[in-house]
Amino acid sequence: MAELGAAIAVDYEGREPILVAGLKTAIVFLSDLSRAVPIHHNLDFLALAAYDGNGERGGRVRLLKDLDLSIRGRDVVLVEDVVDTGLTLNFLVKTLGLREPRSLAAVALLDRPYRRLVEDLPVRYVGFTVPDEFFCGYGFDLDGTWRNLPDIRLVKPAA
Amino acid sequence: MAEKVPHFQADRGEGRPRFAHDVELECAKLLDYYGIPWEYEPHTFVLEEDSHGRIVEAFAPDFYLPEQDLYVELTVMKQSLVTRKNRKLRKLRERYPDVNVKLFYRRDIERLAQRYRLDLAS
């Protein structure tokens, strides 16, 4: 965390970036990351409608909660719990990019680049590149529970 | 496949797709949800011809994502049974080195299903 925070601080010195996290998984990561970034910065949150598998209704991903701050002309750092396919991050980059921020980058606690469907994403900072396993704790849930575990646990499938 | 194929918004292919497997339908729905343009089996790549030029082996990846210039092949076969598919993919890469293709294994798809709560009953 200290390394990520220091890297962000170096890159955004004097620019007061906005750290934007998606609800809910990334909030634990954001709270630690924010305290590890030793420069002035703002925090904001957004929430996306989760995919419910009912594509036959013609649904599209949409914001359930938008940002409170204007990002026009600002440096935005998207705080992602995990980037794998890149579908969510791609949507955020395209959507927020229309608001003309000065810059848009992402920090991912966990990264699974081998599962990427969308390349060319601005993932500038990565905590850990992880294997194809399932995790819970530290904000990651297992059917809605275990988010509160203080660290990331590997979920082993039942024998 | 019993399930009704929805009207897709991000389908850039010609005609309505006829998916061979539920997992392909779920993948199409997921791509559609996130607004990623896709085509279903738009290209068939010749992998091998006989001495008369007749096609003896070909490969049509499940999806093509034009904005990513990426082909995606899904397989729900167990890891131990994907040797043939891996061999085809290797031949594809050898013969068409400029083609970008990714194979998603059963394990990858199960992880995606967990993450996106996909219905992969079959």
Number of helices of chain B: 3
How many E strands of chain A? 8
Estimated share of beta-strand residues of chain A: 25-35%
**Uncertain stretches of chain B:** none
Task: Specify the overall morphology of chain A.
Answer: globular
The number of distinct structural domains of chain A comes to: 1
- Which class of secondary structure composition applies to the elements of chain B? alpha+beta
Chain pair with largest interface: A-B, 24 and 31 residues
By DSSP (H or I, 4+ residues per run), the number of helices of chain A equals 3
How do the helices and strands follow one another from N- to C-terminus of chain B?
HEEEEEHEH
Report, as a whole number of angstroms, the end-to-end distance of chain A.
34 Å
Mean pLDDT of chain A: 90
The helix fraction of chain A, in percent, is 10-25%
Instruction: Report the strand count of chain B.
Output: 6
Unreliable stretches of chain A (pLDDT < 50, length at least 5) are none
The radius of gyration over CA of chain B amounts to: 15 Å
Mean of the pLDDT scores of chain B? 83
Strand order of the largest sheet of chain A: 3-2-1-4-5-6
Task: Describe the protein's topology.
The complex is a heterodimer of chains A (159) and B (122).
Chain A (H helix, E strand, L loop, with lengths): L1 H10 L6 E5 L4 H10 L5 E7 L14 E3 L9 E9 L3 H11 L5 E9 L11 E7 L4 E3 L16 E3 L4
Parallel strand pairs in A: 1-2, 1-4, 4-5, 5-6
Antiparallel strand pairs in A: 2-3, 7-8
Helix pairs in contact in A: 1-2
Chain B lengths: L21 H12 L5 E2 L4 E5 L5 E5 L3 E3 L4 E5 L8 H13 L5 E4 L1 H11 L6
Parallel strand pairs in B: 5-6
Antiparallel strand pairs in B: 1-4, 2-3, 4-5
